[in-house]
TrEMBL record:
<dbReference type="InterPro" id="IPR003593">
    <property type="entry name" value="AAA+_ATPase"/>
</dbReference>
<keyword id="KW-0067">ATP-binding</keyword>
<dbReference type="InterPro" id="IPR013563">
    <property type="entry name" value="Oligopep_ABC_C"/>
</dbReference>
<feature type="region of interest" description="Disordered">
    <location>
        <begin position="321"/>
        <end position="355"/>
    </location>
</feature>
<dbReference type="GO" id="GO:0015833">
    <property type="term" value="P:peptide transport"/>
</dbReference>
<dbReference type="Pfam" id="PF00005">
    <property type="entry name" value="ABC_tran"/>
</dbReference>
<comment type="similarity">
    <text>Belongs to the ABC transporter superfamily.</text>
</comment>
<dbReference type="GO" id="GO:0016887">
    <property type="term" value="F:ATP hydrolysis activity"/>
</dbReference>
<keyword id="KW-0813">Transport</keyword>
<dbReference type="InterPro" id="IPR003439">
    <property type="entry name" value="ABC_transporter-like_ATP-bd"/>
</dbReference>
<dbReference type="InterPro" id="IPR017871">
    <property type="entry name" value="ABC_transporter-like_CS"/>
</dbReference>
<feature type="domain" description="ABC transporter">
    <location>
        <begin position="5"/>
        <end position="254"/>
    </location>
</feature>
<dbReference type="GO" id="GO:0005524">
    <property type="term" value="F:ATP binding"/>
</dbReference>
<keyword id="KW-0547">Nucleotide-binding</keyword>
<dbReference type="Pfam" id="PF08352">
    <property type="entry name" value="oligo_HPY"/>
</dbReference>
<feature type="compositionally biased region" description="Low complexity">
    <location>
        <begin position="321"/>
        <end position="344"/>
    </location>
</feature>
<dbReference type="InterPro" id="IPR027417">
    <property type="entry name" value="P-loop_NTPase"/>
</dbReference>
Amino acid sequence: MKAALSTEHLTVSYDTPQGLVAALRGVSFTLFQDEILGLVGESGSGKSTLALAISRLLDPRRTQVSGKVLIGSRSLYDLSSSNLRHLWWEDIAMVFQSSMNALNPVLSVKDHFADTFLAHRPTMTRTEIRKKTISLLQQVQLSPQVIHSYPHELSGGMKQRVVIALALALDPKVLIMDEPTTALDVVVQHSILAEVAAIQKERHLAVLFISHDFSMVSGLAHRIAVMYAGELVEITKSALATGHSTPHHPYTQGLIQATPQILGGRVRIQGIPGEPPDMSKLNPGCAFWERCSQRLDKCQTLPVPPQNTHTFIRCHLMDSSSSDFSSQSQESQGSSESNGSRGSRGSKEEIAHGR
């Protein structure tokens, strides 16, 4: 598989009154062509910061960035401003968090698309722009008549579809979607996910899909990356994401146990005790140490070695004994395993076909 996007030891620190505070800490991963990689984690774990850092959209006056971001073979942070402008939306595009509020209220839908095309492809005629705009709207299941509408005339789901179509306007190779279904009802959410899956498959896009919803992401993505306190603690194949006999990082186990399961017998929903750590006061060891029910003495003080393979679990329990870790994982998830439930998620095929 060929890499569409990769990061190497990506670190982002914000300038605060208390000094520099790291929001991302040595993040390394690879997103392959024709793949959906889901990214999950609690609020404040660094997901949106990662998306902005990958797109080089962070304010350099208030942040410090180190490490590498590669789009194909090109290093994003080595590009000049003019080259970066050409790369945005043509090679990498982004659907922002709360993107329904990103549309200009005084511009019609067709004007939004015209601005995008004329900024990047000034030789396009108005007829070509109109034809391309209608085609994009139809790809996200919107009527051609929507081009005459203003944002206030559209429902939340329609505005979200317009924003997704705008992100696809210049045929990017990499698409970052930062919680694109937030604030939408379940029916509209499922419809948009089906469209995302269909578009990704048709265009062979590399998609980084960011969400809080572990169950939803496990039904959409090919692999799932789990982020905690600015670090990737696990990357797993989606087929194994809710497997109760599969070893997981203790934080991933907590996310699985906190996910309601529609199918199967009765299970107890368990939250993760405690609160995310203060990023300005992290201990040198595992950031999840204080909340972990399986912690070892060394977890607080000994840093967890970085990894950058297709799938991994960054945990000292894996170092001590894989078999012990597997048995502890099964024991902590025993109530769920006894029901043999697949959970509330559907397969990628079910999402793609709207089932």
